[in-house]
Fold this sequence. Notes:
Layout (H helix, E strand, L loop, with lengths): L12 H13 L11 H10 L5 H14 L3 H6 L2 H8 L6 H16 L6 H4 L7 H12 L8 H11 L8 H14 L5 H14 L18 H4 L16 E12 L2 E6 L10 E2 L1 E3 L3 H11 L6 E12 L3 E11 L11 E4 L10 H17 L6
Parallel strand pairs: 1-6
Antiparallel strand pairs: 1-2, 1-4, 2-3, 2-7, 5-6
Helix pairs in contact: 1-11, 2-3, 2-8, 8-11, 9-11
Amino acid sequence: MIEKMDVSQDMHPYASTLLRWFESHGRELPWRGVADPYAIWISEVILQQTRVSQGWEYWERFMHRWPTVEKLAEAKEDEVLREWQGLGYYSRACNLHHAARQVVEMGGFPRTFEGLRQLKGVGDYTAAAIASFAFGQPVAVVDGNVYRVLARLFGVKTPINSTKGKREFTFLAQQLLPGKRAADFNQALMDFGAMMCTPKAPDCGACPFRETCRAWNDDKVEILPVKLRKVKVKERRLNYVYVACKGETAMHRREEHDIWQGLWEPWLLEGDEASATLAACRENEKMGGRLTLLAKEVKHILTHRVIKADLYYYEVEEKPEMPEGYRWIPEKQVDRYAVPRLVEIFLQKIGEWRNTVQGGHHP
Length: 363
């Protein structure tokens, strides 16, 4: 149960109504009710693109393994990426690790919005959340739930993903913010959007703002908030070849300035080289190599592109010369490396195929 609040009479009527709703309906989450900026920071970064039910588990694992920012700063980046695996947006894990070291160098977390914004990967939303929840700063926290609630409540048609929209909604949220109840109000507004004013089928019948909600009265609940069309999604073709040689396989770590930065993957063939190289692998069958297509055009959707990948298993008796950057690792240790979800699927398919064809020899 949320702790009973002293709802002041001089705050905005919307704020007082929302806080009363929050007192009875607010979510009980493990990172709430604490003033630890580290615990709050980890939760906010994890939950940016993740459902609470899934993010909760990741948060608990992170906090168990690295209970303080000092422990996280001491970790290796590969370890952080491996723990992050499955959440996507892996640059966030890299930024998290980098920022942890910044905090340690500073001697602790900055206590202001402006100071927190100096940490790598910490944008306006995360900085506001830490400043508000950990340090009681009167800063509005504006996430997708907040955009939606405010757009409907006040009938705002400005696109939420435009520069003008971000300024307008942040200003509106700040105007409603009760200075002495900033953290409670921010959490209440986010919970209200997640539980009542949902993207689809909002519970308008039980909404305490129904009589004054502009979207409800103007029959625009389904069209608000307004969002600009996304960037056109591009398609990218990949060919992954899992090379197996006497209990070892070749993998390399992806570099910066591309998808899946810092993660590991098997032999990747892309572009004009793919067809010729795969043909050469097939020719090598005469010399003991066996190339098997395990899956064709496996679809994997990212934010601005769609990946279609062909997945091959290539068993050889002698190690072929690999491109620069690849290393041979024991197959039994593959699960120690952080890999993209697509590669994880590939490894699962290899295990299933080996169970069927080769009697259960796993990578």
